[in-house]
Design brief:
Layout: H1 2-14, H2 22-32, H3 36-53, H4 56-70, H5 76-122, H6 125-130, H7 133-175, H8 177-224, H9 226-232, H10 235-287, H11 293-305, H12 307-334, H13 344-350, E1 368-376, E2 382-391, E3 396-401, H14 407-414, E4 422-427, E5 430-431, H15 437-442, E6 444-447, H16 458-463, H17 471-480, H18 484-489, H19 507-521, E7 525-529, H20 537-551, E8 555-559, H21 563-567, E9 571-576, E10 579-584, H22 586-592, H23 595-602
Parallel strand pairs: 3-8, 3-9, 6-7, 7-8
Antiparallel strand pairs: 1-2, 1-4, 4-5, 9-10
The structure holds adenosine-5'-triphosphate (ATP) and magnesium ion.
Length: 610
């Protein structure tokens, strides 16, 4: 773990600062799809604002040159009204742009999260095998929030700042070319300074963020490993290591504050020098009657105002630069290809819903066949090698074998959660890749090793099996699998909230509910991957009875750890290392005194009835 932290340290500091790629940002905006009308509204409001805010020096210039210089009051009322109207429009625009940018930001995060949620639901299991959930959450929550903020606020700074610069420069050059040029010459100097500063600042901030995560990691490790640290007498070393990182973080933070402290006054200084030069040359021109006092005032005000927008615009770029990696991550997640999906031929033939294609969906009989199937989750780690198994319609096949033998893998393939690298899986002699996925799931009831319930009531959870099921059907299904006993004992009966992931119920109860959910769908094929965890004998008996009821008249593939479940199967298959090493009925296999016999005497959880 320590070494890993060290590795992280070097890995991150070696990273180069990202370049802004316009393509990435355009793609993000396209995916986030903010309404064009909102964008246009925001841009228009900001342009109006930039223009109106910078009209005031001109108005004051007029007041000085017209009213004050000539000692006039004629037209003062109209002047005041115009001024007031401008101020009111500015106030209105300020409110409007804040509202619009807020709406754009929320709309974009909503759209992108919705898209993300839909996409994540479609991605295959193999994607989730290689992608930690924490990583996904962080992309969809932190990265998306940040990116939408960068875009919405970046747009404000960029449009407002950009137009302010343009308006001021035009006004200055038009009023007085000579004095305007002084500002124009200083302009590139400030831009160069700003870019230089932003680059340094970006690097320092990145370093601070990195150190921050190292510190969090060290804290975490220090707390989690406190006991081990004590027994290994590593306290001193850990402390030293932590202090070293904290000191570095402290130094970097001071560097960042120093940089800000230098930058702002330096830019202000340039602004003040320009303003002073305007006063010097302007004063001279005034003496020679070449310029009016009001114009000097306006130029002076502009000279002080010109520099902040440069910082704003440069800030947008550095924010984008800092968020470039986040944008790329989110886009790559949204573009992650869905590996298992209905191919175009299947969609054309059967449609996405029954009746929407050229042919109606076939009636299922329920034979399942694995034909020369080879499969591995990871390259070079073969789990099934040329595996063959045929289950007749209505037959119950139980698979037994040691942990890691490949039992769940067989289920995963039959359910098309994964696709084999070689060979075929056929249902009623048709390759499942040539059938719609929805057809498969409609005909398949599946209870997994760790049954998952959704937050909501018990009724809701059973209804997931068939959405149009009535309250009565739900109750009968629960009764059939003997789930009604415990449900009725609960405070709110069927309306009891099961909590997130069904957390308020025991494993046995969750399993009974998932049986009811499977029953209500009335599938032709039932697949059970039984949990190994032992449950109390009463629930065990109920589960056994539930399974017997479910298996009637269905094709069943069951992976069982309980002898009671296995014994009644038509055929038992003993799997070892992805290969069938023995098969037959319970009695036959016991007589043979082979692998099954050994498993039976050694490993099965034998209930008291046997
Ligand atoms: N998602 C996965 N990614 C990589 N390897 C996997 C994955 N799932 C299973 N494996 C590997 O495939 C092999 C077969 O696993 P499988 O889950 O099919 O075993 P199992 O027979 O169901 O075991 P158990 O009785 O413990 O449930 C094991 O070696 C396992 O480590
Ligand atoms: Mg398993």
């Amino acid at each position: 773990m320590k070494d890993q932290t060290k590795q992280n340290k070097t890995k991150i500091s070696d990273r180069q600062i990202n370049k802004i790629k316009a393509k990435t940002w355009l793609e993000f905006i396209k995916l986030a799809a903010p309404r064009i009308s909102l964008l246009i509204g925001l841009i228009a409001t900001l342009i109006i604002l930039a223009i109106l805010e910078n009209i005031s020096p001109l108005l004051i210039r007029f007041a000085i040159d017209h009213f004050i210089q000539n000692n006039l009051t004629d037209g003062l009322i109209i002047y005041s009204v115009i001024y007031l109207i401008i101020i009111l429009i500015i106030a209105f625009c300020t409110k409007a742009y804040l509202k619009l940018s807020g709406r754009i930001e929320t709309e974009m995060s909503y759209n992108i999260r919705k898209r993300g949620f839909e996409h994540l639901q479609n991605l295959s299991f193999s994607f989730y095998d290689r992608t930690p959930v924490g990583w996904l959450l962080s992309r969809m929550i932190n990265d998306v929030t940040r990116l939408c903020e960068v875009i919405a606020f970046g747009l404000i700074d960029f449009v407002w700042g950009g137009f302010t610069i343009v308006v001021i420069l035009i006004a200055m050059l038009f009023m007085n070319l000579r004095l305007g040029l002084i500002a124009l010459i200083a302009f590139p100097v400030v831009i160069a300074m700003t870019i230089h500063f932003q680059k340094k600042m970006l690097r320092t901030q990145r370093e601070i963020r990195r150190l921050n995560s190292v510190i969090t990691g060290e804290f975490n490790e220090g707390i989690m490993g406190a006991r081990t640290t004590k027994t290994l007498l590593r306290e001193k070393e850990n402390e030293l290591e932590f202090f070293e990182t904290a000191r570095e973080m402290n130094q970097r933070s001071i560097d960042a504050s120093k940089m800000s402290a230098y930058f702002l006054p330096t830019v202000s200084l340039v602004g003040i020098i320009v303003a002073a030069l305007i006063l010097v040359f302007g004063g001279d021109a005034y003496m020679n009657n070449l310029i009016e006092i009001g114009t000097i005032y306006a130029l002076f005000t502009y000279a002080l105002r010109l520099w902040d927008p440069i910082r704003q615009v440069a800030g947008v770029f550095s924010e984008m630069q800092a968020a470039q990696a986040a944008a790329e991550r989110v886009i790559s997640l949204l573009n992650e290809p869905v590996e298992i999906t209905d191919n175009p031929d299947v969609i054309k033939k059967y449609g996405l819903q029954n009746g929407s294609g050229e042919l109606p969906w076939p009636e299922i009989k329920g034979t399942i066949e694995f034909k020369n199937v080879s499969f591995s989750y990871l390259k070079d780690e073969i789990v099934l090698d040329n595996f063959n198994l045929k289950i007749e319609a209505g037959e119950t096949v139980a698979i037994v074998g040691e942990t890691g033998a490949g039992k769940t893998t067989i289920v995963n393939l039959a359910c098309r959660f994964y696709e084999p690298q070689k060979g075929q899986i056929l249902i009623d002699n048709i390759d499942i890749r040539n059938l719609p996925q929805a057809w498969l799931y409609q005909n398949l009831g599946y209870v997994i090793q760790t049954p998952h319930l959704f937050s909501g009531t018990i009724t809701d959870n059973i209804r997931y099996g068939r959405l149009e099921a009535t309250e009565q059907e739900i109750k009968s299904a629960a009764k059939l699998v003997h789930a009604d006993n415990f449900i009725e004992k609960m405070e709110n009966g069927y309306a009891t909230d099961v909590g997130e992931g069904g957390g308020r119920l025991s494993t046995g109860e969750k399993q009974l509910i998932s049986f009811a959910r499977a029953i209500i769908a009335d599938p032709a094929i039932f697949i059970l991957d039984e949990a190994t965890s032992s449950i109390d004998t009463e629930t065990e008996k109920q589960i056994q009875e539930a399974i017997d009821i479910i298996l009637e008249k269905r094709t069943a593939l069951i992976i069982a750890h309980r002898l009671s479940t296995i014994k009644n199967a038509d055929r038992i298959i003993v799997l070892d290392n992805g290969k069938i090493i023995e098969q037959g009925s319970h009695q036959e296999l016991l007589k043979a005194q082979g692998h099954y016999f050994n498993l039976y005497t050694g490993q099965f959880i034998i209930d008291q009835n046997v």
